[in-house]
Specification:
This protein is mainly α. It is built from six helices and no strands. Helix 1 (10-20) crosses helix 2 and helix 4 (59-66) crosses helix 6. GO terms for molecular function: DNA binding.
Length: 109
């Protein structure tokens, strides 16, 4: 099997796209964060936040600026992670985003 010249991994292409267009990063994260409501699919939201953190500075730099250890950030944003609200807010702030609340589409009036 030969390697393609100038091939870019999916992950690297994803990071480049998120870096290039902030609105894409916001919509990507908003869609993934909806998975946090489902206990069986929480990993998608955490991994999306990890990917955005990688795109906007790298995990080491984001952890440093957020005031947490790199190892703690890796654990918090892993598929089985369970970050505190403080960690989520710190990471979001570091990448230039903030937590927001909106009404559920099927919420009772």
């Amino acid at each position: 099997m030969s390697k393609l010249k100038n091939a870019v991994s999916h992950h690297d292409a994803e990071l480049a796209e998120l870096r290039a267009d902030r609105q894409v990063a916001v919509e990507y994260l908003k869609a993934a964060m909806e998975s946090l409501d489902d206990p069986n699919d929480r990993a998608a939201g955490l991994l999306a936040l990890r990917t955005v953190a990688e795109a906007y500075g790298g995990l080491g730099a984001v952890a440093h600026e957020a005031g947490i250890s790199r190892e703690a950030l890796y654990r918090a944003l892993s598929p089985k992670g369970n970050p505190t609200l403080k960690t989520l807010l710190a990471v979001l702030k570091t990448v230039g985003l903030r937590l927001s609340v909106e009404s559920e589409k099927h919420a009772h009036a």
